[in-house]
Amino acid sequence: MPRPDRRNERRAELLPIVAAAFAELGYRRTSTAELAARCDVRENILYRLWPDKQAMFVASIEHVFECSLQTWETQLGKATDKRSAARRLLRYEAEHLGEHGLYRILFAGLGETDDQQIMSALAETYGRFVAFIRGHVAAHRGKPPRGGGVSVDRAVWAILGLGTIANIGRELDLLDDNQRGKLLSEMGDLILDG
After folding, report:
1. 48 lies in a domain?
2. Does pTM surpass 0.85?
3. DSSP assignment of 27-94, as one string?
4. Is residue 140 part of a domain?
5. Which of 41, 115, 116, 167 has its CA 20 to 30 A from that of 139?
6. pLDDT by residue (tens digit) across 66-104?
7. Domain that holds residue 89
8. What is d(CA 162, CA 6) in angstroms, rounded to the nearest whole number?
């Protein structure tokens, strides 16, 4: 009897380690030898799971969204206050944005947009972020939108931009935790309400 195919399960086990390495070292400085060492496997094991380093990086890009989604759904599931889901997520991110450093994978990917597969993975991932946030911003505002101010689509991109700027501030040591939190909560509230 043939052994069951465990590749998907093994990928799921190793992907957080692979992603953490890319977050720390970026795409170009991360070698498959380094990835294998961190995963405590031989390189050929990684090549059985992914065809090449590019595929490992693309999987890591997708992992960023999956981790975010899992975190957000967990937060929404245990919320007990009356604030909208969008407001609760904004408050959560004001306290926790970037604490695991996975955003660095997206930053590294932006330097690789000449690679079609990486660019497509980034576009897909950002598209998924936009769709998720759009649903919560629209629900927060109600239908029709209150106030007739900034459109939901522009608000979504502005919220993503705030998160990006907050993480740049973290990377360059220009914003401390408190400043990043205030940026996200105060400016986020203005954008959220249109």
Report:
1. no
2. yes
3. TTT--HHHHHHHHTS-HHHHHHHSSSHHHHHHHHHHHHHHHHHHHHHHHHHT--SSS-HHHHHHHHHH
4. yes
5. 167
6. 999 999 999 999 867 788 999 999 999 999 999 899 999
7. 61-192
8. 40
Helix (H), strand (E) at residue 21: helix 7-25
Q: Where do we find the tokens 């490992």?
A: 56
Enter the DSSP assignment of 142: T
Residue appearing with tokens 């997206």: 106
Identify the CA nearest to 133 among candidates 69, 74, 79.
Answer: 69
At 148, which helix (H) or strand (E)?
none
CB 152 within 8 A of CB 134: yes
Nearest to 98 by CA among 191, 171, 19: 171
For residue 21, what are its two tokens?
A: 């390495």
CATH number where 126 lies = 1.10.357
Residue 194 token pair: 């249109």
First to last CA, the chain: 61
Integer Cα distance of 165 and 182 in angstroms: 13
pLDDT tens-digit profile of 104-148? 999 999 999 999 999 999 999 999 999 999 999 999 988 655 556
Domain membership of residue 3 (yes or no) is no
Total structural domains within the chain: 1
